[in-house]
Design brief:
Blueprint lengths: L6 H10 L3 H23 L2 H18 L9 H22 L1 H15 L14 H17 L3 H10 L6 H8 L3 H24 L5 H6 L8
Helix pairs in contact: 1-2, 2-3, 2-4, 3-4, 4-5, 4-8, 6-9, 7-9, 8-9
Amino acid sequence: MLKAPDPDAELMLLVKTGDMAAFEQLVEKYKQPLVNLMFRMLHDLSEAEDMAQAVFLRVFQSAPRYEVSARFSTWIYTIARHVCLNEIRRRSRHPADSLESSQSDSEDASPRQYEDRQTFSPPDTLLHGELEQKIQEALDDLPEKQRLAVLLCRQDELSYEEIAAVLGLSLSATKSLIHRARETLKNRLKPYLQTGAWEVEQFETIPLKPCLE
């Protein structure tokens, strides 16, 4: 059991009793973060939205068996990890289907991307968009586990311990994984900082901020 109350876990316990309003509150809170995570991993907004729905379906189906053994955020991101990696494995077995899906969604994916909860003013908005593109390209070159670890690190409520639980790794292995990923990203993106076009503060906001201790 958790040492401190977890409001989301308490909501899930209400879902267990059939409280649909509690379930809607959880969907409202986690939908955008889940879609963001899935989109970064899959590069297909429609697929990301479908995968987020699949996560919530599993959450709802698991309600009768739900027990509070960890923070709710850890539990739901663990489900999201399984759903996402299963889809990636499916795509690897059917690359033609994945290519067709990505091409059909490419025209409207960019303007519909979910933005991080930050505000930028012109011309900062243009610089932020270019920086996001370069970060995404660098993320794409990371191994799947490193990429997922870094993206989970962007979720404000997740600590290293919780990310380790989501990934099914030890705490030391998780910290090492995130460290290697961050160093790779920094080295990959360093040339763009050296041009002077971006401030260091802009670069450090996403996705390289440290996780909670």
